TrEMBL record:
Matching InterPro entries: 2OG-Fe_dioxygenase (IPR018724)
Region Disordered, residue ranges: 38-71
Composition-biased stretches (Polar residues): 38-52
UniProt protein name: 2OG-Fe dioxygenase-domain-containing protein
GO terms for MF: dioxygenase activity
Domain of life per record: Eukaryota
A Pfam family recorded for this sequence: 2OG-Fe_Oxy_2
Organism: Sordaria macrospora
């Protein structure tokens, strides 16, 4: 912290410089960062106390922006679709996919099919268009130089039959959760997803879709998670993997892994200059006997279950994360002299962490809040097939 004496010794900015700083500040007001809100700063301090050696100790100075105007758009409400035949067609198709998911423990849905399903649930065509460009507003990743990212936390609350935005929290994955990388066990801080994504009806329909597929599906249970709870944590990542002439972008630098959750869903938003014919960003799924941390080039054929490649807008993979390890190949460019990018939405969904006295030791125990987000609220209703048919969970 600068003392008053040190401040006096700083060179004074010229009037022109001050105007330039103010102009930059105004431009940044449209992009609120994690360290710019009192609640997020409190979370950062909590993270510092948990892991004092973490890179968040070197966060940039904070400033308080003026409230940026928010364009209010109607949110998704599946209950208002009940008089539309397309809604029932979408529900019927999703129930078929759900049955396949229960049997096979993973599904891959072509983007063209996802478009019909999301529109049937109430997403608007204009929001589908907007979703393809949302990754243009991502920031640097805290630990990976070839990635740009934002994240946000949501709660699937099956008691209220809704999904809502949760307050900002740091994020962590550990070796115990089959995630072996240089930053395993670190408390990581990501910039938050904003209203341009969370108020997009196509994005909200993706949340409803995942809730419909996963609700009531039993899985192999992870230690230290509360499987008696009717609330699930969904950590959403909006990621852009970047390959340049100087650095290779790897969607899964960690090699073979799981995501420390119960259900993982990955949805493709688009790419630039990515060579899909050269097997860029292919997802390989393995049985649980495959070695955690092995590169995709080192995987054993006897452990390989399947492979998929996200190639078209909204191509979506959903898998039971406790029963499938997975790995990915890197993003390869068509033109090696130019940047290649791949944009994704990643939905990690798990039960809450057991608290002290019940499951001491989970890495996320101290950062697993269920408080709603005070500055970026969002809540939309869910369609729960088990509840509708009277089967419960």
């Amino acid at each position: 912290m600068l003392t008053s004496t040190a401040i006096k010794q700083l060179p004074r900015a010229s009037t022109r410089s001050l105007r330039s700083i103010q102009a930059s500040r105004t431009r940044l007001q449209l992009h609120r960062l994690y360290h710019e809100t009192p609640q997020s700063r409190a979370s950062v301090e909590t993270a510092r106390s948990i892991n004092p050696t973490d890179p968040i100790a070197n966060l940039p100075p904070t400033w308080t922006p003026s409230p940026a105007p928010t364009t209010i758009r109607p949110q998704l409400d599946v209950t208002k679709q009940v008089f539309k035949p397309s809604y029932y067609q979408a529900v019927a198709e999703i129930m078929k996919l759900r049955s396949k998911y229960i049997t096979n423990r993973s599904i891959f849905v072509e983007g063209s099919d996802m478009v019909s399903l999301l529109l049937g649930l109430g997403a608007t065509p204009s929001d589908l268009d907007r979703l393809q460009h949302v990754s243009n507003n991502l920031y640097s990743d805290p630990t990976l130089p070839f990635r740009r990212s934002r994240n946000g936390r949501f709660c699937f609350d099956f008691s209220s039959q809704s999904v809502r935005r949760l307050e900002f929290q740091p994020f962590a994955l550990s070796v115990e959760e089959d995630f072996k990388r240089h930053d395993s066990g670190q408390i990581r801080i990501f910039d938050e997803v904003q209203d341009e994504l969370q108020l997009n009806t196509a994005f909200q329909a993706l949340l409803v879709f995942k809730g419909m597929i996963c609700h009531g599906v039993s899985t192999t249970q992870r230690p230290r998670l509360d499987y008696s709870s009717d609330k699930w944590v969904c950590t959403l990542f909006n990621l852009r993997t970047v390959t340049t002439p100087h650095i290779l972008g790897e969607p899964a630098l960690e090699g073979v892994h799981t995501d420390g959750v119960d259900h993982t869903m990955t949805t493709y938003l688009g790419a630039e200059n990515m060579d899909v014919e050269a097997n860029s960003a292919v997802t390989y799924m393995h049985d649980m006997n495959e070695e955690t941390g092995a590169k995709y080039t080192e995987i054993k054929p006897q452990h390989l279950k399947s492979r998929v490649q996200h190639r078209h807008f909204l191509d979506t993979l959903l898998l039971v994360d406790t029963e499938n390890k997975h790995s990915l190949s890197p993003v390869l460019p068509v033109d090696e002299t130019k940047e290649a990018t791949r944009d994704m939405l990643i939905f990690f969904t798990r039960r809450p962490v057991l608290k002290k006295g019940d499951g001491v030791g989970h890495i996320s125990e101290a950062i697993d809040s269920f408080r709603p987000h005070g500055e970026l609220p969002m809540e939309v209703p869910l369609f729960l097939p088990g509840k509708i048919h009277g089967k419960g969970e």
